[in-house]
Amino acid sequence: MSHLPETDSISELAAFWQTHDLTDFEAELAEVSEPAFTRSEQLAVQLSPADAATPHVMASKEHISEVDLVSQWVHERLHAE
Known about the structure:
Structural class: mainly alpha
């Protein structure tokens, strides 16, 4: 019998579950009492066009979204103290 895959790849997981049945892995499963996923809160921030351009340019250079970049900034600032 195969073991459960240890990957974060959605395509690999989808391919695995196309050919396997969950009941074949009952011995490897564990019940989880706390939520597996948490929803994040959204916060709208008003910026001038000039201020909004800076995160856009910086995020493009880092190959991440503006939302992820600004979230990183806020997280770093909140946990700096």
